[in-house]
Design a protein that fits this description.
alpha+beta, elongated, six-stranded mixed sheet, 11 strands, single chain, 11 helices
Length: 393
Amino acid sequence: MNYLVIERKELYDLVWSKPITKIAVDYGISDSMVIKICKKLGVLRPGLGHWAKVAAGKKVRQLPLGKLPKDCQEKYHLSSHARNSKHHAFTQYEPPHPLVELELSDELKVTVADDLVNPHTLVARNIKAFNNAKATDKLTLKPRAKNYFDIHVTEGTKERALRIMDALMHAFDKRGWSFKLSSEPEVSMTVTVLDESIRFHLEEKIKHVEHVLTDKEVSAKAAGKWIWPPRYDLVASGNLSIHIHAGYRLINRHSWSDGKVQRVENCLNKFCIVLIELAEAIKLDRIKRDEEERQREIARLKRQELKDARKAELTRREGIETDFARWDKANRLRQYISEFEASMMIESASPGDITEKEQWLAWAKNYADLIDPLAEGESTVVEETEGMYLDSW
């Protein structure tokens, strides 16, 4: 298997030369994978609206590559295979997380003790809580304490479940993973792995078996009495399962149950491995969602720019059409005034009429100048009282 080596400087030049979506197509990987590689190599990416500004011809600022950040690397490897004669697809070559490799070692092997001797502080507290617990109508125990383990078990599996939790508490402490109990809005327990909080719980399978009439019910029925027995009876199975609260979208496996050969006690390292893988998947999913949101924001900004440009263009058109209409009206009015003035030269009128008509001509020419956007007339009472509420006087 050959590997494509992506150099830090090479990736930096790429992400500042074209959008990540195009880089992803070139490498044959997802957008989120390109973003993840950028983080691995400490390469800063363009911010929101960068490519929209470039498309609009606006000036943008390019961030420098800078020194290699701590915990980053200079190169990244992708395994390659030919997709067709023109293209090559590259799939991620991601070695197992160092913590996963440690889980496979004897050093971190999780072992469940046969007896609860010197239990973890939280386990000791829960032993007391579950010893005082009452069984619900679903057979599982419910402590009266405020904070207790999110384990749904019967009296018969209580001690075994607490031993498993004791092994997990010590395992979490050894790995530096913080554990948290909560009672609001419901009872829950979470463990923080690689800065990601992951919820899980332990439960016993409760079987539903066909109800068999009791002696009392048989006697009542024989006596002709009406009885309404339940269809099923709940029976404790004694089989435990441990569940991670995550869907198949992020991980393929999120539960381990007792089987004919397998026991939950023997799956705790696998459980820890999936916690690590899920934490990594959560981070990658967050990066992907952030990038999708970034792309949506870019698209929104682009739409807004087009909307603003369209509005500005329509406003300019409306303005010039309004000015043209005023100019055309002013010129047609001047033509009329000119014809009117010519008729005055022909007509014989008294000096008083001539003076009145000359005053009208002066007013009319000024009005035409007021209408014309290319001329400037003297303001009249109309312009001077513009915006005044004369009706309120």
